[in-house]
Amino acid sequence: MTKERQRFIDNLLKCSWQQRQLLTFSQSFSVICRMKKFLLSAIVAISVLFASAQNDEYYMFVGTYTSPGKSEGIYVYKFNTSTGESVPVSSIATQNPSYLSISPNEKYVYAVHEVDSKVPGGGQVSSFTFNKTDGKLSLVNSQSSGGNNPCYVQVDNTGRWVFAGNYSSGTLSVYSVNNDGSLGSPNTIQHAGTGPDKQRQEGPHVHCTVISPDNKWLYVPDLGIDKVMIYKFDDKTGKLTNNAKDGFVAAEPGGGPRHITFAPNKKYAYLIQELAGQVAAYQYKKGDLKLIQRISTIDSTKKGTPGSADIHVSPDGKFLYGSNRGNLNDLVWYNIDPSNGKLAVAGHQSTLGRTPRNFNIDPSGNYLLVANQGSNEIVVFKRNKSTGALTDTGKRIPVGQPVCIKWMKIN
Length: 411
Prior knowledge:
Blueprint: H1 3-14, H2 17-55, E1 57-64, E2 73-80, E3 86-93, E4 97-102, E5 108-113, E6 124-131, E7 136-144, E8 150-155, E9 161-166, E10 171-176, E11 187-190, E12 210-211, E13 217-222, E14 227-233, E15 240-241, E16 248-250, E17 257-262, E18 268-273, E19 278-285, E20 288-296, E21 308-313, E22 319-324, E23 330-336, E24 343-350, E25 356-361, E26 367-372, E27 377-383, E28 390-398, E29 402-409
Antiparallel strand pairs: 1-2, 1-29, 2-3, 4-5, 5-6, 6-7, 8-9, 9-10, 10-11, 12-13, 13-14, 14-15, 14-16, 17-18, 18-19, 19-20, 21-22, 22-23, 23-24, 25-26, 26-27, 27-28
């Protein structure tokens, strides 16, 4: 028997009946209060853990090629950024949704349908609503892409305009977004020119349409003419204006500019060049791009055709990653010098599959996922946030011809 309990009994024997009742009630009330406090603490702890678990989960959208028929369209998963685990949620059948973009309010998903405009229903851009409760997509409407084989789509920072790039025809289109998320008719711009590679650069080939962090400029790498076209953008009217004199930056002849991305600090931009297997680093200021470096994507111990494809900066801005297809099938990553934006090769990693057309880093920066188009699966790598190095988790997401990965908060 505890001393506290013994003292309570001794005092109880000295009291009157009324006093005994009061003392008993007092102790019982104290016990109840302590129990309630414990229960409240437990409830708070459980709530924190539940909220934390939810904060670790994101919706992951995967765009694919549906021909030949190993895929049906767009796939939705839940991805846990703490464990690297994924769970299938839903899918929607649609033709060759090779690239996706999420609206800023996370209510809509936009997709290009990468087929020739001569194919019935081809050469289109579509809008889908997304229900966060059940994780399902529903088609809103589709519009012509304004060209052939659209391969890229992006929403501007206001969510009122959508841009799409058409590879085969060398055109880009701008769409207004209506209140219900549907797309208006396209306004289309035609590029012109050629490059030194007669097979790949016989004409213009728009490969991406990327809005600047301040939403004032649109950058359009064109693989066919070795230029990154720069358009001034008016987010009130959707108008794009290009100054023919200095409205572009020239890539290395035969380089084949493909994708461009900005550093989180908004001071630097990085362009991956498909044909040359290079990354060009630029200083970014008020719309201008000033070249500061060119650096290879290719492992010096290997030989092969790079087919460089995608490029992303880690969320913390410390590392830049790029992918090589061809017969290399690997990722390169670079340290970014914070003082000047220059790159230094930090390592290479096999993608453990074929044709890494696209990859993405999860919002937490914990994992890098590679869409291996040629081997029909997404490979999940763990990222070392200190070194940028990648380690195979052994986790695989089987999906037919994956070519684009995008993220959305669950709550």
